[in-house]
Design goal:
Helix content: 10-25%
Number of helices: 5
Bound molecules: fe (ii) ion
Largest sheet: 8 strands, mixed
Strand order of the largest sheet: 1-2-3-14-6-16-5-4
Radius of gyration: 18 Å
Order of helices and strands: EEHEHEEEEHHEEEEEHEEEEE
Shape: globular
Amino acid sequence: MSEWEIEKIAGHCGARLKGISLSRASNSELQKMRSALFEHGVIVMPDQNLCPDDQIQLARFFGSIDVNRFFTPVSNYPAIAEVRTSPEQSAVIGGTWHTDHSYDTAPAMCSILSARELPPFGGDTHFASMSAAYGAMSHGLQKMLSNLRAWHSDDSFLNSNLGLANNPDAFRDPVLHPVIIKHPVTGVPCVYVNGDFTTHFENWSIEESTSLLAYIYRFVTQPIFTARVVWEPGMVAIWDNRLVQHYATADYYGHSRLMHRITVEGVPLKGFN
Ligand SMILES: [Fe+2]
């Protein structure tokens, strides 16, 4: 088994795994990688250059593939979503803080993103630790939020012109998740509301929910909770959607960018209280 190292890239989330080859890794190496994912929320591995079959095989180590019903699939690989920005696009997919698949009853546990074509600058992805954000809240706010659930909806994909598949059958009814979840593997409490898909608190009106949700979004995305991933050719990033939110930076207008994404099935989320 080859030796590889884990280097933290920020105080509260993010780690770089050096020396691992994902397409040749042994089972024990992959288990170590999975532990790093649950500890750091997002792990990045440079110089992987995974082919689509390698990426699918890697995803299957974590579980069954959760095929996204809105994204355009990669040609001949329906399990892989294409995250493409063309040079004339000023907005990008994921260009606001969000959690992938939170509109599902059992939201995807992790997303695996493989860099295929990068712009000459920019296009970094930011991550924010939802366990660190929870830990920094006052006891009073923690307690109040722990007693709430919130509705999540895929409605924000309506009228999207960002290359998302225009499929009216893809939409589902909104789902409820606890606002503070207990991480399904580690048990740590994590904030689980996001600006793209959360609509309002259970038994609250949308108007009543807006101010508190806006406060939470501002709070949880403070720079101290974040790590910034600067993409390199062939790099792979894996993040745990229960532990971090993420944000794609749309600062490379005039250039194209292509990433391949696979999401892995998760489980229904339980509250922390
Ligand atoms: Fe995303």
